[in-house]
Amino acid sequence: MNHTVWSVLIFVSFVSAPSAAQDHGGALDEVVVTAQKRTQSMQDVGVSIAAYSSAELTARGVESSLDLARITPGVHVSGSIGGQNSQFTIRGVTQADFADTLEAPVAVYIDDTYISMQQGQLFGLFDLERVEVLKGPQGTLFGRNATGGLVHFLTARPTQEPDGFLSVTFGSQQHKRVEAAAGGPLSETIAVRVSGLYNQFDPIIENRFAGADDFWNDDTRAGRLHVEFRPSDTFSALGSAYYGKSDIGIAPYLQTPVVPVFDADGRQVNTIIAGPMETRIGIGPNGIATDSAGVPTSARRPVPGGDLFGFCCSDEKDFVTENDIGRDSGNTFKTYGASLRLEWEWSGSALTSITDYKDFEKDNTNDPDAGPVDLFGFVSVAETKQWSQELRLAGQSDHWNWLTGIFFIDIDAKVPREGPTVSATSILNAALGAGGAAIDLRDFARKQTQSASLFGQVEYQFAADWRLIAGARAVKEEQDFEYGTGIFLGGSDTLIAPGRSFSDSFDDALWAGKLQLEWTPFDDVLVYGGINRGVKAGAFNQPIFINNLPDSEIPYGPETLLAYELGAKSTLLEGRVRLNGAVFYYDYDDYQVFEIRVADNVVRNAKARNHGAEFDLAYQPFEALTLGVSASWLEAQVEDIRLNGFTRTVDTPYAPGFQAAVYARYTWAVGSGSVSLDADLSRTGDFYYQIFNFDAQRVDAYMIGNLRLSYKPKDSWEFRAFVKNVTDERYVRIGTDLGTLSGGAQAAYGQPRWYGAEVRYSF
Fold first, then answer.
1. Mind giving me the DSSP string for 454-496?
2. Which CATH number is 9's domain given?
3. 641-655 per-position pLDDT tens digit
4. Pseudo-torsion of CA 164, 170, 173, 176, nearest 10°?
5. Could you tell me the pLDDT band of residue 405, with boundaries at 50, 70 and 90?
6. How far apart are CA 593 and CA 576, in angstroms?
7. What is the value of pTM for the model shown?
8. Domain total for the chain?
């Protein structure tokens, strides 16, 4: 089934459904959000927001951050380790650095608590109340690195009415997913809720290397406990604890042979996909053959169309490869922690205290060349511990809404081991002078961060139809960084030779701000325009062992974003239509851009500009049918990127120029129950996965469609059958160009066509 056929099916579902519809009109459900730290209708908030209830996430098959990005134009996902580290990209604001000491410019929160480590963003989406995606800087109300915006996961809280559910899913690749929750009162003042997730599927990638495992699999377990104490209408205390662990295989990369291209001065100016008869290691002026450094040579690739070691090639159509390090377990990611939320209310005011602790642990090994050659493995072991305290006071009167508070966070990110592991049989062993002994070229790093901020925001209704919003956050941040390298006996802590060491610290004062004017010319219409100043602190590069970065370039400075936005929100036709849109212009000062090369993986500050537009339309022509369409247009560029002695302006990585999503849901009565058909289609435009915009780093546009059929015989039971990626599209999610290292590029693909069925019981 091709894209045209799928598009026709969507169109037919739109135009044919009314014939079976009920005659009376319908109204869209009100979407409630807490984007401004208080409960409001989404249509009353002058922020570009995408919000999804638990029911909508279930109906649309959202089970991961990638699924969430797929249905939200303007939002994309970047990352590393084949997606085992993952970050959100919003309106082109991204950071693809894989360092474990990194914090991303798009902040992720769960129940008002910040997630500092990239792997922490991979937690299962289970037992949620809703998800809110806030686009643009949000630094005046959210306390950490919300330069590009934030994604906020809000979980279901305990209630005084017993409730819960059990959901069991079976699907392709022996997929088994069990999600459950139960809660209710223990007494008149105490209620609890416990929930859990188990997710497992067998390897998708077939590995034909003898003795190695197939990979790209999952084995995840997670649990959460909420206990709420509410002795009165004016005070509540919510204690939460959570744990999650994933035990999975190596990064699900497939390799594509590529060829670096050099100019007359030996500077790399491009990388291209290797043709089936290509034997040149590199290509110089007039097509001359060069080595991987651009020097003319008579040496050739062992196999035409293969990488530098003779591997040709991974098969992305059938997900077949050869990988000497391939394994289906041993890469482990753990997350656990606890939080306490206290709330007092009195006379139009509220005081909220949120105390939180989180611990993230990571241990994985991956194959950089993504092929069968014993080159080297790459080991990364890291642990991040964080605790934070937020205290905020809010109030309101006839014309005023205000909020002020303090926020403190302490983050201790340790990377006790990272870097290449060279076995006794590796082809690099002799070149490194290891004498046949296995060695580890090990890095170790630690970054300690303490950040304190004072923030506030005020809204003033100065006329019947006009409102002014102003806010600011003052930040004091300290960071201490230590880094070192050494050569160790393989698999041990026996030091063979010490290497490089570095330490530094800084103390910065930063500020974010917001000034916005809002106008409600008619009922259910909001027009807003304003400027937001977002800021993200500087930090330190965490070089890999072979990095030749001078000490002076290990620190990098803070980035500042001035975001100008004009938007409108409207609810029309007696609530049956919701139409929202915005245009924006981003002016970056010292944007933190990540450059990856063989021996130089580094964040540098550069000038950048983004501008674009987006809209979201939801329409319920009658009660049985809901339609939706949304789209975003974006131009995101980084200026004066230094590449081998010259500069160029490039497109920001992981920033598609166009994204669109179409959604339809139709429900009809069957006996005493109902049947629902959900269909969605999303298109993601071209983008690059690395900053240099080389030809081989370009990802072609792709389109994904999904279908779900649900039967609900009564209130308690629901049965679903689904197909994800109906056309079995092959598309790249994350990539790394290693043309000058292995003659290949790593690519992690999206999930293939996926069938499944779900049974859900609610009580």
1. EEEEEEEEEETTEEEEEEEEEEEEEEEEEEEEEEEETTS--EE
2. 2.40.170.20
3. 877 777 889 999 999
4. 30
5. very high
6. 43
7. 0.93
8. 1
